[in-house]
Design a protein that fits this description.
By secondary structure, this protein is of the alpha+beta class. It contains 5 helices and 5 strands, in the order ααββαβαββα. α4 (85-100) links the parallel β3 and β4. The longest helix has 25 residues, at 3-27.
Length: 152
């Protein structure tokens, strides 16, 4: 690579870093997520056992610049950043899936027991860190659903 090519590549890296920091500032992203690596975005996840679950996760980050735990983020288009039991269950199901069907390249990454809900309204984002339900509660909710619906 020529000197000018190297300078051009460094310049592009600098622009990308500045652009990312500006986006984080405008997004009001929590520090934990700013220091993380995005590993999944708008991606389907599924599990065939111990119970059958599937969904489409908004984002999964790996903390500590890609060396830490996986953290699930779900975005909601709401005026108020009110967290409901269904929101917590949704994030908890995604985390459960990731714990029992590890992501390729992140097999040894622990899955955090907390996640984030990102509320967006009028181009303003607000993040709420939430504790997730324990796995046994996810399993019990699944069993109740199967009993009520008659399907597995």
């Amino acid at each position: 690579m020529s000197v000018w090519g190297a300078i051009g590549a460094m310049s592009a890296d600098i622009r990308e870093g500045v652009s990312r920091r500006l986006w984080h500032a405008g997004e009001r992203m929590p520090r934990e997520l700013r220091r993380s690596v995005l590993v999944l975005s708008e991606a389907p996840v599924s599990l065939r056992g111990p119970i059958r679950l599937h969904g489409r996760v908004d984002q999964v980050y790996r903390t500590e610049y890609g060396r830490g735990a996986l953290v699930v983020v779900d975005s909601k288009m709401r005026r108020r950043d009110r967290v409901g039991a269904d929101d917590l269950m949704q994030l908890s199901v995604y985390a459960f899936i990731l714990r029992h069907a590890p992501l390729s390249g992140h097999e040894n990454a622990p899955v955090s027991r907390r996640g984030y809900l990102r509320f967006v309204w009028d181009d303003v984002s607000r993040y709420r860190r939430v504790g997730l339900y324990p796995d046994r509660l996810v399993i019990n909710a699944y069993r109740e659903y199967v009993e009520r619906s008659g399907s597995a």
